[in-house]
């Protein structure tokens, strides 16, 4: 099965190296200027991540990447960073929303706690499994019809979590 997304941490040394490499030796590519601009944005702190894709810009528009996701009783809207369940607004903290959106965007894929942490936080992973577990527990209380028998965010024992792709 092909992975939907791969998260790779990029430190300031790598950002600076890429920036200098693109300035000094720009490749003959239509995307080079766009990548250079994205790296500038990262170095300046305007953004903390970039999404690199082999999908062409003309195809991205048809993917509806920013449109809301309807999954069972949930509606997740990344533009407004809002979630509703059965038409009722669900109040999430920014990190709860980020975790939910990351898992929902990658439905069916199992992630370790470390992978979830690296995808949502820009800092290095802290060896504290209880942090992610607490966020998942709070999320389940807010989005699951029965948090003790989750139907959206599933625990894969011994590995981590996944968003149910059967909903």
Describe the secondary-structure layout.
Layout: H1 12-24, H2 32-44, H3 57-63, E1 69-71, E2 74-77, E3 82-85, E4 88-90, H4 94-105, E5 111-112, H5 113-120, H6 129-143, E6 153-156, E7 160-163
Antiparallel strand pairs: 1-2, 2-3, 3-4, 5-7, 6-7
Helix pairs in contact: 1-2, 4-5, 4-6
What does this entry look like structurally?
This is Winged helix-turn-helix domain-containing protein. Keywords: DNA-binding. Residues 66-165 bind DNA. It comes from Ventrimonas faecis. It holds the Pfam family Trans_reg_C. The structure is a single chain. It contains six helices and seven strands. The strands form two sheets. A four-stranded antiparallel sheet has the order 1-2-3-4, covered by helices on one side. By secondary structure, the protein is an alpha+beta fold. A hairpin with a 2-residue loop joins strand 1 and strand 2 (74-77). It has two domains: 12-63, no CATH class; 69-163, Arc Repressor Mutant, subunit A, CATH 1.10.10.10. It has helices at 12-24, 32-44, 57-63, 94-105, 113-120, 129-143, and strands at residues 69-71, 74-77, 82-85, 88-90, 111-112, 153-156, 160-163. Helix 4 packs across helix 5 and helix 4 crosses helix 6.
